[in-house]
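--- STAGE predict ---
source: upstream dedup step, 1 unique chain passed
mode: sequence only
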Amino acid sequence: MKCYCEQCNSMSDFEIKPQTEIFPVYGEHIEIQANVAVCKTCGSVIFNEELDSKNILIAQNEYRKKHKLLTANEIIAIREQYGLSQRSFAKLLDWGDKTIRRYESGSVQSKAHNSLLLFLQNPNNMNNFLTQNEITLDEKRLKKLKERLSIIQKDKAQEFDYGYISNLFSSELSLENGYKEFDFDKFASCVLFFIKASKELLIVKLNKLLNYSDMLFYKQNGVSLTGTRYVHLPYGPVPDQYALLYAMLEKRGIVASVYEQLDNGFEKHLLKSGEAVFEYSFTPQELSVLETVNNKFASFGSKQIADYSHNELGYKETKQGEIISYAYASAIDL
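--- STAGE serialize ---
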């Protein structure tokens, strides 16, 4: 792949390097660690539209972090939680169709709109809001939304206490979690995806599949898939507090542990789907990343994928026990 270099006056090969840059976002100068294309011939920075778009998204996420605004993916999640199309959601909020579309594509929302979205993130608040604004939806959509709210509220009442997870994982958006607050349900969904896509899945391999999925999604979208932090351990990158997370999944019946005795005296630990009904769905972008990662490593055993992960820049440049920053996602090549 080549880009035009003004210094060389020709299409040139380039390499991607980190560089501090400042981007204007809503009148503010936002400094980020950007990834830029550097000409291999003369060493000058050359314009690359794809990298520039991703850098702008990173700058917008930094702006959101500074002003405590929801990310585009979080806005999508709020809408999809209630099973609403962009048009129906906009109608309910009395916003223009293009407004929701812009926010979900990465444009930074106003603080007033952000406050309303945050308020509606809670199903109880949405229920109260709906009683005052139900006239904005036709009878069919209104009935569907009320049914969805009833199911959500029933599920919420049966869920285990998420307070411990909230205390365990920082809600501060940063490069450690890929600018996304940890999403336990999305994490569980990804675990089930890989379990169902595999004949047998050892935890060692699962940890790497999750890491590659989050890193690749961040590389493509400027935000992680699950908000998981990854730690450098001897067998490669693993989700922070992974043993506790899998124990929580098992407690809820989402997964089940299977232990098999090997001839050499060791025991292998596999995960399988549990008996509990856990419905999940992915956006086309999320599904594409998960399928890419699964296809890449379908034939890899646990040792193979562990060895493969040891060659990643993020693993090489961190020490045991350290968090692997999503800044290294740009070096992932899948």
